[in-house]
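Marked as duplicate of an earlier ticket. Keeping the data here for the record.
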Amino acid sequence: MPANLPLPKPPESAPAGRVGGVSVLGTGSYLPARVMTNADLEKIVETSDEWITSRTGIKERRIAAEGEHTSDIGAAAARKALEQAGITAGEVDLILVATASPDMFFPATACLIQRLIGASGATCMDISAACSGFLYAIEMARHMIDGGAIRYALIIGTEKLSALVDWSDRNTCVLFGDGAGAAVLGRRPEGRAGRGILGTFMGSDGEYSQILGIPGGGTRCPTTRENFDQKLNTIKMLGKETFKQAVNAMTSASIEVLDRTGLTVDDIACIIPHQANVRIIDAIKDRLKVPSEKFFMNLDRTGNTGAAAVAIALDEAHREGRIRPGDKVLMVVFGSGLTWASMVVEW
């Protein structure tokens, strides 16, 4: 992968007259009610629970109901995050939605969520960085808050990947699920422990853009009567190459952000990786020489929920008490593009 240009380190302190660094003030998540188990998949594609579990670690995933859209899922997570943060929708200045499965090409899913939650004063847009989008969006919002342009940002990762899966392809259909996670960002309130976001690292490599994606449905290859049966508008993946690139990128991104923040893995209380495949996470554990108990994982219950995965896991870890005030949390993600990112937050 090509070397990334160095990114500026975050300021040591907030600008004069402002309280605290940029922090996560609240989190929320939502999973659709329908559970699809590996046994359910055995009925529709040639696979088995043993095959799926041994190769991915996934036992079940959630599937959105008929008429339940990406925006609906995202709005449900957003409401929970706002409630926990003690912020009303009317106070939100910016909504950034990370998704690879928007309701439609345009308008932005962020605008649809704005309407659903009543955040009429917010500026809205979508971020397209696949599974890395949630951390990309947080970093964008952090700079806007730090620069004084906005006060509160609502960051949402939301996916309905079940609508983009080829259910006859056992190599991909077993992996993905639906769900959403959200976070409210703002300046750390006075008296709250933790310094907020300590550092971020992001990278991309378009040389590998063909190994994971949806080749059809866009302007390069519109869906036509002639190519409809090829299912080009569904997720295609070169599994072995994606695995290798994911391990390399997430390992190096973790090391890089720790170096930028002057920390070591011993300083980190909880590591939340992209929830894609347990073998990828195990390989990262080995390379970083980190004990399993430091990692938070929920992919056995959720599958890979794309841009929502790290957001859902962050909310669950927070609500389950895996993250306590003052803890340093490392999040690291990888997605199509290729894209990757890592972030350290002091809670």
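See parent ticket for discussion. The chain has two domains: 22-187, 196-346.
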